[in-house]
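New to this. Help decode both lines:
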Amino acid sequence: MRPMLPQPRLGTMMAADSMNDKVEEDEVDAFCVNAAKQAIIAVGIATSGRTEILSRTVDLVAHQTRLPDLVVICPATSGDVDPASIEGLAFCSVVRTGERGLTIQRNRILSAVGDADIVVFFDDDFFPQADYLAEVEKIFAQNPDIVATTGRPLRDGANGPGLSVDDAMAVIRDADLKHPSSPTIATTYGTYGCNMAFRGGLIRRHALLFDENLPLYGWQEDIDFSRQLAPFGRIVESNVLRGVHLGVKGGRTSGVRFGYSQIANPVYLIRKGTMSASFALSLVRRNVIANLARSIWPEPWIDRRGRLVGNFLALMDLVLRRISPRRILGLD
């Protein structure tokens, strides 16, 4: 039986840098765990340059039918979080400012989730349906063999010019009235980084971390992290884990850097052993063909020519045996 812990101080915000109420990281459990609930759910959100969008995401988390026990936000700078957005919440919130880079920031989050049973990661521009956390809890409770789960967004702005807040909220309101008639759980290769949940105990037991050799946007960090859990159980996606991914275009890396990552990161993960050669080859082939085909008439929201240049630089480095995900730090 889990030991009884002190009840949380509702609406508490804790920080490791510029906030007034400073609480040591090993005190998070004592203040932020609600022992009355069967599972402890922590939600982590890494963010950079999207203060207003983040505030809307936090508000949607605050209106979940099953509230989280803890929310950990990791901004790249203190200005990325509006303090008003995390005041008066009915659960604890922790702010841990970290160096810019998705993998670095998500590791900062992992250091602050304490003994959470379930760790949920949302992108700062993912708007979860009101029952998202309730469904996550149910999936893990009813399926002990599942180690990671994810959902496919109802709409995904990452595949287009992006969605406005109003458009996303309209989808959310419509979906509130339409719960899936046939809930499904299906095995999938890896989780989708905008919304994914893991068993916290396995993360701690095996000392799992996001790979900081995948810098900045950390492309394919979601596959890399979730595949580290594959030896211990099933990775699944479910149609009851619903939400909208705005796919906001601000706050991302350059086209050249991203194009380099499209090749360098899969190559690195093949060598690491967390991505199969067949999966990586399909991914690389699809992206290079898309960049080549659309470079003449590119979409206004994608730097196809920059990506194609990045693809070329990565292929040259592959031939010269110096390819590395971290080389994007030296590119414009």
In short: The chain has ten helices and twelve strands. The chain has two domains: 13-245, 255-330. The radius of gyration is 20 Å. The chain has a mean pLDDT of 90.
